[in-house]
């Protein structure tokens, strides 16, 4: 992941729109990564987010470079991760540095499983302008199947199972075991971490409707707030999880 990290000079309506689409759909990236951390056997080949890094040196002459971060964490507000690209022009950041940015500043996201790519909005715009031969070489360099550049995939196997856009298959499969877990550990319903996040907050951020319903039915407080004053409904609205908002409001 080196030269693909630097944004190409081309400008177009599609390229300008791609980062917005990435931000608007980031919830799907985070949901997949959230469930990945519950798997015993990892399923993702990679999961990374593209960010615009800037430097003003000399003053009033800003330089900008688009690079990828991985080891992603997300609290509903900001994205944290580690820079995995090597800067080509910037000197104020280096490979391996920790990054903490607002969701509104991401440029793209990408995850892959079974070598099939999901997301990659800016990449697909770039691939659209390539010849078939160049697209093949590009995909081989990444070691991924990016598929049809006109059809950016958001959720695992969404073409075969469109219901995966609404609910992650692992959420459906773990419903009963999750009920058993709460019955055995009822204190988890009210537990807050050091930042005031409850399990309900985390599940709402990840878009897990079935688990949100179970938590509410078993007594989780819908009006619980984080240390920064956010309820689970606030996060559902911010991330536009439309199937969860009515339950929490």
**Helices and strands, in N-to-C order?**
HHEEEEEEHHHHHHHH
SS-derived structural category: alpha+beta
Strand residue content: 15-25%
Strands across the major sheet, in which order?
4-3-2-1-5-6
How far is it from the N-terminal to the C-terminal residue, by CA?
Answer: 43 Å
Largest sheet: 6 strands, antiparallel
Number of helices: 10
Using only CA atoms, what is the Rg?
Answer: 19 Å
DSSP strand count: 6
Flag low-confidence runs: 1-11
| Overall average pLDDT | 92
Overall tally of domains: 2
What percent of residues adopt helix (DSSP H or I)?
Answer: 25-40%
Shape: globular
How is this structure best described in words?
The chain has 249 residues and is an alpha+beta fold. The protein has 10 helices and 6 strands; from the N terminus they run H-H-E-E-E-E-E-E-H-H-H-H-H-H-H-H. A 6-stranded antiparallel sheet has the order 4-3-2-1-5-6. Helix 6 (175-184) runs parallel beside helix 8 (209-217). The relative contact order is 0.13. Residues 1-11 have low confidence and may be disordered.
